[in-house]
């Protein structure tokens, strides 16, 4: 209980004070939505939020494609050269400290730029960086779902005359869709949340929302930040709830299916 | 020409040989059963016919065409899976239409065919249901309808009744034979349940350790088993091992647990001194309180199992040899446990086995 208190009390307070009328963050002066209004007119945060969403959406899509391929590789091919190494390589980004990940990616991008003159650091590099570790999360989810997927369904489809590609798109992918959806959502939220990696690999042209918040907080906390954080929380909560609901529905279906 | 011809098919998984040089012919319109204990290779053979496994050697012909190298989706064969393998994200109609859609038929014809199949398996009201909303028996019908929808030349059924409860199994068995007659498609059933194989099939092949050990009509398999293994696996049996000797009139079998040699069926042509087994079905054994004329074995009743339509009586001879007899109706009620009885059978109803 104490642990939850420490975790959630500040968040509740933050949401509460986002509706404060006063300019002072810790003094309550009545209900107001003026900071939400101020936020709307503040161009810097707006651009940053847009950048963040754009990066998150692209990174999540990229993660989904790469992670699904990797998950298939791990789940379906029992033996191929370097399978063990590949498996470790997929899990490593989940445990390697973000600072190291960010720094190493930065070095890579710098080296690339000096050799090929591409990519210049900005939105593209952040997207690629986020996609690399997002793909690892997606691959773990896809692999787990594939392990529980009944191969007889694929065989039945083949038997009924479907080509392997049709089997993949009509049977297998719909079958693991909960993992695909929750994987995308997870990659999206991870990208939206990330400050460390993004700060490392970004250039002068791109500022994500967490970066904008972090730099403005260094100059002092304004109630505007509270309002922004509240909105942010809402988006993240919604996505997590959506992912959770999808997974729970899938689980229920499976249990129900077995019962009958 | 047989519809399905398997010519010397073998399949190894690592060190184990799942299917060992099997040759088999299935005639057009037959209801063929592959019967064997689990792990005998019958499912592997079925998967080779469907195209999910490639034989290491040998060839498979369907309707005279060599399909050995063809992928599963190009074979004129459909399969009903043991788990039914219905697509959970499609409704019943979608499941049945799946195979037809792969042929790019036009919508109206697909819809008509789906309705026809639903009517065939008596599931007409269920087109919009999802598989998880159906009972086990209903799922089985949908799986059958889906596999029949494309009018395959050969339908493979992997233990079609295994997942159903006993009463439903008996009903479904009847329906299955009815449907097979109506659609006229050749059925090949794989099962380890001998009752299922004997009751539905027109021809049975018994498999053991990757080989086909006997093929024939169900009655032939049951009445004239070719080996100890078949006699023991198909139905209940008393197996007496012994050595042949010249008897009273013709050959007799000296069995260690009996006081006198057992007479053999007339026309048994085997050399004296050869080892052989005698198979006697429990329902052929006749019990009496007084010693009958001719050959009989003295024994005591060790237990009686009531089966409803009759009883199975377990006997033991003085030398400790066990014996079982099936008595129809209430005939067993006159024998109490521990009572001395005489057991005999018409010698021609027994089968001599050397393998």
Strand order of the largest sheet of chain B: 6-7-8-3-9-10
Question: Alpha-carbon distance between the termini of chain B?
Answer: 31 Å
What top-tier CATH class of chain A fits best?
Mainly Alpha
The overall strand count of chain A is: 0
Q: Most extensive interface: pair and counts?
A: A-B, 22 and 30 residues
Poorly predicted runs of 5 or more residues of chain A: none
Biggest sheet features of chain B? 6 strands, mixed
Query: Beta-strand percentage of chain B?
Result: 25-35%
Structural class of chain A: mainly alpha
**What is the second-level CATH architecture of chain A?**
Orthogonal Bundle
Task: Give the helices and strands of chain A as they follow along the chain.
Answer: HHHHHHHHHHHH
If you consult CATH, what is the topology of chain A? Answer: MetI-like fold
Instruction: Tell me the Rg of chain B in angstroms.
Output: 25 Å
In round numbers, the mean pLDDT of chain B is 86
* Oligomeric nature of the chains: heterodimer
Can you identify the CATH class of the largest domain in chain B? Answer: Alpha Beta
Helix content of chain A: over 70%
Number of domains of chain A: 1
């Amino acid at each position: 209980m104490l642990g939850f208190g420490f975790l959630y009390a500040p968040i509740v307070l933050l949401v509460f004070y986002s509706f404060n009328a006063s300019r002072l963050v810790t003094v309550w002066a009545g209900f107001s939505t003026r900071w939400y209004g101020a936020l709307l007119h503040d161009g810097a945060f707006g651009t940053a939020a847009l950048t963040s969403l754009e990066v998150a959406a692209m990174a999540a899509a990229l993660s989904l494609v790469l992670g699904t391929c990797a998950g298939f590789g791990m789940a379906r091919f029992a033996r191929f050269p370097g399978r063990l190494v590949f498996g470790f390589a997929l899990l490593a980004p989940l445990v390697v400290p973000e600072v190291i990940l960010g720094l190493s990616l930065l070095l890579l991008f710098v080296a690339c730029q000096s050799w090929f003159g591409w990519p210049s650091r900005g939105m593209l590099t952040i997207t690629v960086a986020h996609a690399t570790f997002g793909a690892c999360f997606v691959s773990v989810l896809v692999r787990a779902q594939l392990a529980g997927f009944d191969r007889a369904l694929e065989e039945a489809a083949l038997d009924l005359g479907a080509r392997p590609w049709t089997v993949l798109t009509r049977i297998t992918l719909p079958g693991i869709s909960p993992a695909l959806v929750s994987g995308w959502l997870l990659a999206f939220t991870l990208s939206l949340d990330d400050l460390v990696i993004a700060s490392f690999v970004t250039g002068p042209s791109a500022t994500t929302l967490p970066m904008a918040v972090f730099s403005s907080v260094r100059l002092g906390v304004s109630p505007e930040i509270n309002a922004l954080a509240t909105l942010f929380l809402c988006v993240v909560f919604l996505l997590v709830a959506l992912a959770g609901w999808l997974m729970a529905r899938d689980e229920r279906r499976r249990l129900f299916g077995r019962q009958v | 020409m047989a519809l399905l011809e398997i010519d010397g098919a073998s399949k190894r998984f690592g060190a184990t040989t799942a299917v060992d040089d099997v040759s088999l012919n299935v005639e057009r319109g037959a209801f063929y059963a592959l019967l064997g204990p689990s792990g005998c290779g019958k499912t592997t053979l079925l998967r080779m016919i469907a195209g999910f496994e490639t034989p290491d050697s040998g060839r498979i012909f369907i309707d005279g065409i060599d399909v050995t190298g063809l992928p599963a989706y190009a074979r004129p064969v459909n399969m009903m899976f043991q788990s039914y393998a219905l697509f959970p994200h499609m409704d019943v109609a979608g499941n049945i239409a799946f195979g037809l859609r792969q042929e790019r038929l036009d919508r109206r014809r697909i819809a008509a065919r789906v309705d026809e199949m639903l009517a065939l398996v008596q599931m007409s009201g269920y087109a919009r249901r999802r598989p998880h909303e159906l009972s086990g028996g209903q799922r089985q019908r949908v799986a059958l309808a889906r596999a029949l929808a494309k009018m395959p030349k050969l339908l493979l059924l992997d233990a079609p009744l295994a997942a159903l409860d006993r009463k439903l199994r008996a009903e479904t068995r009847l329906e299955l034979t009815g449907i097979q007659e109506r659609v006229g498609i050749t059925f090949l059933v794989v099962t380890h349940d001998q009752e299922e194989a004997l009751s539905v099939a027109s021809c049975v092949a018994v498999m053991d350790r990757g080989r086909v050990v006997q093929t024939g009509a169900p009655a032939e398999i049951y009445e004239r088993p070719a080996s100890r293994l078949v006699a023991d696996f198909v139905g209940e049996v008393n197996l007496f091992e012994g050595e042949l000797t010249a008897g009273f009139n013709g050959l007799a079998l000296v069995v260690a647990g009996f006081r006198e040699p057992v007479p053999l069926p007339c026309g048994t042509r085997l050399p004296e001194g050869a080892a052989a087994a005698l198979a006697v079905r429990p329902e052929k054994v006749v019990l009496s309180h007084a010693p009958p004329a001719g050959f009989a074995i003295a024994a005591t009743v060790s237990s009686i199992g009531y089966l409803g339509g009759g009883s199975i009586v377990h006997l033991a001879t003085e030398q400790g040899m066990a014996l079982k007899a099936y008595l129809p109706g209430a005939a067993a009620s006159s024998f109490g446990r521990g009572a001395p009885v005489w057991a005999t059978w018409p010698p021609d109803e027994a089968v001599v086995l050397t393998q």
